[in-house]
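Re-run with default settings, no changes from the original entry. Doing this only to confirm the output is reproducible before filing.
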Amino acid sequence: MASKMDSGSDEMMSEINITPFVDVMLVLLVIFMISAPAVYSNVVKIKTPTIKNAEVMPAQTHITVRIDVVSVDEIQVEGKKLTQQGLTSFVKKVVAADSRADVIVSADGALSHSAVLEVVDRVKEAGVENISFGVQKKI
């Protein structure tokens, strides 16, 4: 708290100096902006296959859903665990909301081909036409 003394009066004026407070808040904002993506980016540990010619998809204006196939029995959609039937009903709701919805299927590289194709088959049954596979680019 800073104080001022007027040269001609005996009264003391008190003012709160908010500059240090604003400085601290801006530093905290920058710290949270930098650390937030790191906290939420790898919630599910999946080792996706790596390929040399991976492309980054441009931003779309319609719904894009990411499905993570962790194991044969475990499927996660946007971080929520679902069963095979739950996956079908969820994707049907997405298609009802946006008929041009996209689905990105990310699966662990150690999973069998049939486990991934079963998820793709359920997504197609629900009405999704655009299905992509999540991979990592080889360096």
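Residues 75 and 134 are 14 Å apart (CA to CA). The chain has a mean pLDDT of 79.
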